[in-house]
Amino acid sequence: MGVPLNIDFQQICLHLLNFTLLIAGLYFILYKPVKNFMKKREDEYRDMQDSADKMLEKAESAKSEYESKLAEADQEIASRKRAAAEELEQMRRKREKEAEDEAKKIVADAKEEAKAMRQQIVDGARKEITEMVEEAAEKILQSNDVSTTYDAFLDAAERSVPDGDS
Length: 166
Prior knowledge:
By secondary structure, the protein is mainly α. Helix content is 90%, strand content 0%.
């Protein structure tokens, strides 16, 4: 009996076998290497992404560390500024006290000098008065006219005493 419609099953089986061999060959020659290449490429990109994420994380931690160190440095600078200001204030107070002590010493020395000068003037005036009294006494003794001698004494006293002093 013949094959209806001219279909040869042997040819179909051979074509199916060729097609199966073609698919298997293409699978091993093209699909598997391309798939492996794509997987390697994907793994490489994933590794690069992981590496970039780790580097970003390190950079962020370094940034936060630097920011904290910067904040600490700012605090250290501020504390040193305060300490320097306090030290400067102490030095200013010390210098002010020294200046006050020096001013007190100068005033005390000036008072002492003024007192010494006053004493010298008083001693000089006493000496002059004593000399005038002695002269007047001598004149009184030498002359009998008391009223003339007394007037001369008063005139001499008026000339020796400066105006405005008591």
